[in-house]
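Budget justification note: compute hours in this period were largely spent on complex prediction jobs such as the one shown. Inputs:
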Amino acid sequence: MKDKNKKGDRPRYTVAVTGLNAIDSPGPGMAVIRAVREAKDYDVRIIGLSYEALEPGIYLHDWVDKTYQIPYPAAGSESLFARLEYINDIEKIDVLIPNFDAELHNFIRLGEKLRKIGIATFLPAMDQFEARDKVNLYAFGQKHGLLVPADRIIYKVEDLAGTAKDFGWPIVVKGKFYEAVVAQTLEQAQKAFHKLHAKWGLPIIVQQFISGSEMNIAVLGDGKGNTISAIPMRKLYITDKGKAWAGITVEDNALIDLAKKFITATKWRGGLEIEIMLSVDGKPYIMEVNPRFPAWIYLTAGAGQNQPAALVKMALGETVEPYTTYDVGKMFIRYAWDHIVNIEEFQKISAFGEL
Amino acid sequence: MKLKKNIATSESGFIFNPATGDSYSANPVGSDIILLMKDNKSIAEIKKNITSKYDVDDSQFDKDYDDLLAQLRDNNLLEH
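Corresponding output:
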């Protein structure tokens, strides 16, 4: 364990976090920060990494000590590395936790280079990351004996009709990175195709619709096949974007076993979220695997398994024993908050890329 | 008929199914019956307790008890 920057008896780590967009479809960053700040055996200085000047976390100074803008993922990994080198020269980052699907590719590629300049990450290997991609998920499920709804990857809107004929209506039309639309008719499916194509590009994933109740599991793997934590949550209130605005931890050993099976099969390193549809006959179908902590990750800390805090320790080379218990029936209820900001702060982050 | 072991109940009539996250509210009579079921009381003991506490005759109790069981079964709160 590093002992630099010691404050009292506890070491103090500098942790950089992305995903500061605490909006109606929130990034996980603020929840990760909140959880890490509650770590029992270390203190943190939080460095926010933002993409846009209006990400709320930039201005929440009680939570984020300093924020730097970083280039969009499309700028490539070299551009990102150059920026991170500059930031690291000033801040001496110990651990970096990326929280967006679209940026992970670059951060995984940079893992070794970051390690050489003293920044630890705790991310899956590229092949693990690719295997659970929406595009490959069905084949992944077949290989490891996990239930995944049948899907088809399409590039042309004309392919919708044939796919729907095979699957039966309704079908689920999904964007490459985010968003899914349940379409009851060909017209709805075509509309969804064009919208998701414009927003996220191609391909579009068409998935068989499974009726049932939706469960999510936040999971942390140690990279050696061990599940350090798995917390199942049921959404109680869902926004029009399909995001949980309230949720509750549930007790379901079948879901935890599924998470463990996934981690054993992939030797997943880091946090992830498994989205499950429990069919009417009780079968757990994996709908999606998000390769990072979900926005509701603070619930894991509330329920007694602080996954982000454990991830920081593992990133720094410590061994963390798997958690064995958690509080069932622990709820989260999200809220929106109007934060008042002076224009000078907005000017600083906009003009200099730092605040 | 037995309530599932993990079902949480309170004296206020709040019922929580930890496997699904669903919660329910029972009226005072339903709440008493559920608490007695939770204590593994027999149907005869439950009937005796409820008919002595509330102004209800045996046949009305039987009907209400059957209704309650049907609701508990529909919501997957009973052992199979």
